[in-house]
UniProtKB/TrEMBL annotation:
Protein name in UniProt: HTH araC/xylS-type domain-containing protein
Source taxonomy: Bacteria, Pseudomonadati, Bacteroidota, Chitinophagia, Chitinophagales
Molecular function per GO: DNA-binding transcription factor activity; sequence-specific DNA binding
Organism superkingdom: Bacteria
Domain HTH araC/xylS-type: 16-113
Gene3D superfamilies: Homeodomain-like
PANTHER family: ARAC-FAMILY TRANSCRIPTIONAL REGULATOR, HTH-TYPE TRANSCRIPTIONAL ACTIVATOR RHAS
Keyword terms: DNA-binding, Transcription, Transcription regulation
PROSITE patterns attached to this UniProt entry: HTH_ARAC_FAMILY_2
SUPFAM superfamilies per record: Homeodomain-like
Amino acid sequence: MTKDSGFQRHALQAVGAFKELLDDHCANGDYAHLVSARFGVNRNIFQKAFKKQYGITIRDYKLNLRMERSRQLLQAGKDIKEISLTLHYTTARAFSFAFKKHYGLTPTAYAESLV
């Protein structure tokens, strides 16, 4: 085994652990630096390894998780303020803006389309 292949394996293990953490906690918080440090992987290498393994940046993956979770919460009848707090948006307006940018309609319009 060469030094490079061991490093790659190490980085991919860190990325896998990080993805599990994101999936389990719905992307709340920024744990990338903690996981990369725990596995001894440079942050830039860690981000590149994540994108290589999953085909998406960490930021976009986290956004997709939050948006999917927000859709689930809207379907469950939760209100926008509660969802924004649950998903750690600074304000309900920030959540609404992100939702509209991602899905092309406001959370209110989405919720109304479910009825």
